[in-house]
Amino acid sequence: MTIRVLLADDQALLRSAFKVLVDSEPDMAVVGEASDGAEAVRLAKAEAADVVLMDIRMPGTDGLAATRMISDDPALSHVRVVMLTTFEVDEYVVQSLRAGASGFLGKGAEPDELLGAIRVAAAGEALLSPTATKGLIARFLAQGDGEDEDTPARSERLDALTGREREVLVQVAGGLSNDEIAERLEVSPLTVKTHVNRAMAKLGARDRAQLVVIAYETGLVRPRGD
Description:
Elements: E1 3-8, H1 12-23, E2 28-34, H2 37-46, E3 51-55, H3 63-72, E4 80-85, H4 92-99, E5 103-106, H5 111-122, H6 134-144, H7 151-155, H8 163-173, H9 178-185, H10 189-203, H11 208-217
Helix pairs in contact: 2-3, 3-4, 8-10, 8-11, 9-10, 10-11
């Protein structure tokens, strides 16, 4: 199946470069281009996009607001957003994940990284830029609600999970793939996939990236001190 890609960036030259790259792949095609977030949301629905490459900084409705709008629209529940940013190590990392993005990538990424990001997002996996470590994201997540001490209430979200589902969620938050989790827990990858899907359904998570956010926000996983 062809991955339908929407490009959202206010720089026409950059969109053109991305379009040439994406359209050169046999398994993907650009189905639309947007210069601001509002247009990106409209086109995501009109063109039945699978993945949106979304610039964070755009005039009018920015990428973060547009991503929230896509995440909140049941009609767009299948759409995955990959944030593009010039600055990978800043608060945008967490804001992107919390807005509902499947991950983020620096605009300086290699072509193969960008194409790989599209495929990873389309498959429902979490995408973490190589230069932004999981520990960094964990620290940002931990700091994001520093004023909020309502951890017990938030941890109640996990009550619906079985013990095994919690165990799998911890491994997902650690960045492990289904195969790696299966090996560690000595079960089959299919069993892990079932637990992940059930956890996503119970917690209302769109994808694995959202599971990572929930794992840290509820205190199930704590950021490392290093």
